[in-house]
Specification:
The complex is a heterodimer of chains A (about 260) and B (about 400). Helices cover about 15% and strands about 45% of the residues of chain A. Chain A is built from four helices and 13 strands. Chain A has helices at about 5-20, 25-40, 135-140, 255-260; strands at about 45-55, 60-70, 80-85, 95-100, 105-110, 115-120, 150-160, 160-170, 180-185, 190-195, 205-215, 220-230, 235-245. In chain A, strands 6-5-4-3-2-1-13-12-11-10-9-8-7 form a 13-stranded antiparallel β-sheet. The longest helix of chain B has 19 residues, at about 1-20. In chain B, a hairpin with a 3-residue loop joins strand 19 (about 350-360) and strand 20. Chain B contains one helix and 21 strands. The chains are: A alpha+beta (about 260), B mainly beta (about 400). The interface between A and B is large, with 36 and 45 residues.
């Protein structure tokens, strides 16, 4: 087909646009669902919340973590975030600043209050445990389209209606997973469940979300997240509270000076 | 005494001041720690004929915040009682300062602590605060420094301007203390080059910035040298060392490149006094192996080299020293960590070894076990003074 002719050009354009509707591959469908989920969560600008973590070992012994988070949405880049730890008490005042990027290493700094020292840290450790919990660092970071490739698996009935089931393959070679399987509800594109498969492709963890609430009439956030590790019998529960959106956080709330006085 | 009086009067003003504000947030926290030191043998000098010592330290923190966090006040007194050494039984105000935050600036006024630098084995460019040397031999404990610090945030970095009125003398172990030189340092007889003595007003400016994988800091400091010269003098019929504090100009650079699992670190300074001009550096690399042997534990390996242009005449310990270390982090719920290192002196062929292990118990307790071994034979080597001070230290901390 020659494209120099305007009519042919028009036909070609129609063909390109209509292709997904006619014969969409599972990969394209998976990407489309994920893009829609991301699109529905854009524009929140800034967010603050408090988070409690309950770590439970096999014997049921508990260990508590308390922290507060602030994030600032970035256009065409990953979010900026600042996390301040309140408990356990020996790490009180420790703060963590992260500039995340969809592709490549994030920029991360840690503030150690005893020494008043700001340390730039390597962000390569995606698969390591966050605060000794069953959440890895990569489980705590914001969802970006570029971090995965996708494959739509099926539709399935789930807790609050009908869900899309989509498989995600991490792009980063340092990820601790070969794949994740995500259940998103068709009505609101909220993640209800995620299964994590380790580097040997066996089921490692299951994360479930509960208590979804809508903020600014648009953004859904779960009050509770529970991660169960099937291999070591440990679990971690996250409880979110005091969500605030668009409270006017600025770029200047996310630099080394704000890191040092965060508490 | 003047500083103490000022602190007390400021504290007395506080309730009225805080009460006037509409919405004041108050927070009280802190820690108590008990420490046991066991030595392998008696020390080599008079007053050191014991093999164990106990010590107790208290560090509460009072914090007030008002105007939605635009203004805050922190008060952190510190006191340690030591069973053996009167000089190690000491108090300090680590922090007593007011911070006011503007849009792209911050003003920090009072007694505070500031850290500069990137390396682990020596903190060469960290010159704002005086070292509280009786606390530990790693030089990481600092005395509160009186300051007015204006910090400006710009697109091209952060600029910190410092005016530092009032100098803090370094603490030294007393006659009954271990880990000291043969001659006792007489801290009551400190001498100053400046006629203003400890009231000399020092100044400093630092620019720091992060670009891509690089974090860079450049500073200039003018004032009283935090590192004293130690000169032998006869005092009351006894030979002692007297700390002499010179005036210096110092230009320093600290830089880190964070590339994948590698941290490349460099600290370097150029210092000028009436007596001498010299350069010094501390630099090296840290590499971390994540998830070793299919576990969630990390192993970090550190290698650093310290150099001082003055060579063996240097007052610094790291004049031509190679340091190697390893850090194991279990990443478990108890935050278990192990750190071991050895500093090897290439001039004196001596070495000092340290091992540190720590973990949390429950929600508020932390226990650390540290060991130090010194191996030195050259009489000219400063390390020879502590060659009989090999020890283990058990520290139990309670946070509240």
């Amino acid at each position: 087909m020659k494209l120099s002719n305007p009519v042919n050009l028009f036909l070609a354009a129609v063909l390109v646009v209509s292709t997904p509707l006619m014969a969409q591959s599972p990969e394209e469908r998976g990407l489309e669902i994920s893009q829609e989920a991301k699109l529905r969560d854009l524009g929140w600008r800034d967010m603050q919340a408090a988070m409690n973590m309950v770590l439970r070992n096999k014997q049921g012994q508990e260990s508590l973590r308390e922290m507060r988070l602030k994030s600032l949405e970035q256009e065409n880049d990953g979010d900026k975030s600042l996390t301040v730890f309140d408990k356990p008490r020996d790490v009180k005042g420790t703060a963590f600043l992260s500039f995340s990027h969809p592709v490549g290493a994030d920029d991360q700094w840690l503030y150690l209050p005893a020494l008043k020292r700001v340390k730039r840290i390597a962000s390569r450790n995606k698969s390591g445990p966050f605060m000794g919990s069953e959440f890895a660092y990569e489980d705590m970071s914001s969802f970006e389209i570029e971090k995965y490739t996708y494959r739509y698996l099926r539709d399935e009935a789930c807790g609050i209606g009908e869900c899309f089931v989509v498989e995600q393959y991490p792009v980063d070679k340092h990820s601790g997973y070969t794949r994740r399987i995500v259940w998103l509800d068709k009505a609101e594109y909220r993640v209800l469940k995620t299964e994590f498969y380790d580097r040997k492709d066996s089921l490692l963890k299951t994360l479930t979300f509960a208590g979804y609430q809508q903020y600014l009439n648009k953004y859904w956030r779960a009050d509770e997240q529970k991660m169960v590790n099937h291999q070591n019998g440990k679990s971690t529960e996250l409880e979110w509270s005091d969500y605030q959106f668009r409270s006017g956080l600025k770029e200047s709330d996310f630099n080394k000076n704000s890191l040092k006085r965060a508490r | 005494m003047g500083k103490k009086a000022l602190a007390i009067s400021l504290l007395a003003l506080l309730p009225a001041f805080a009460g006037a504000a509409e919405d004041v947030l108050f927070e009280f926290s802190g820690k108590v720690d008990g420490e046991f030191r066991g030595y392998q043998q008696d020390g080599q000098f008079t007053g050191q004929d014991y093999r164990s010592s106990l010590s107790l330290a208290l560090e509460p923190e009072f914090y007030w915040e008002w105007n939605d966090g635009v203004d805050s006040l922190t008060f952190t007194p510190f006191y340690r009682h030591d069973q053996r050494d009167d000089e190690r039984s000491h108090g300090d105000i680590r922090d007593f300062s007011w911070v006011h935050v503007g849009d792209d600036w911050e003003l920090r006024t009072g007694l505070r602590k500031v850290f500069w630098g990137v390396t682990e084995f020596q903190h060469l460019v960290d010159v704002i605060n005086q070292t509280d040397a009786v606390e530990d031999s790693d030089g990481e404990d600092k005395l509160g420094q009186m300051m007015v610090n204006l910090s400006l945030v710009r697109d091209w970095g952060i600029v910190d301007l410092f005016v530092l009125p009032g100098f803090r003398e370094r603490t030294f172990a007393g006659e009954d203390g271990r880990l000291r030189s043969g001659l006792v340092v007489d801290t009551d007889a400190a001498e100053y080059e400046s006629g203003a003595g400890e009231n000399h007003v020092d100044t400093a400016v630092r620019w720091s910035h992060s670009v891509d994988v690089y974090d860079v800091g450049l500073h200039w400091f003018r004032g009283t040298n935090r590192d004293p010269l130690l000169e032998p003098r006869m005092r009351a019929g006894q030979m002692v060392l007297v700390p002499v504090y010179e005036q210096i100009d110092q230009l320093g650079l600290d830089a880190q490149a964070t590339i994948d699992s590698w941290l490349w670190k460099l600290e370097t300074l150029w210092r000028r006094s009436d007596r001498e001009k010299y350069a010094a550096l501390q630099g090296g690399v840290e590499y971390t192996f994540y998830g070793i042997r299919e576990s969630v534990a990390d192993l970090g390996v550190l290698l650093e080299y310290g150099w001082d242009e003055r060579g063996t005449d240097a007052t610094a310990i790291f004049q031509n020293d190679l340091s190697v270390g390893a850090r194991v982090t279990l990443n478990d719920a108890a935050s278990t960590e192990f750190l071991a290192g050895v500093a090897y002196d290439l001039d004196y062929d001596s070495n000092s070894l340290f091992v540190e292990a720590s973990r949390r118990f429950g929600d508020s307790w932390k226990v650390s076990l540290d060991g130090r071994v010194f191996d030195a034979n050259d009489p000219a080597d400063p390390l020879v003074n502590v060659s009989q001070d090999d020890m283990i230290q058990l520290t139990v901390e309670r946070y509240f």
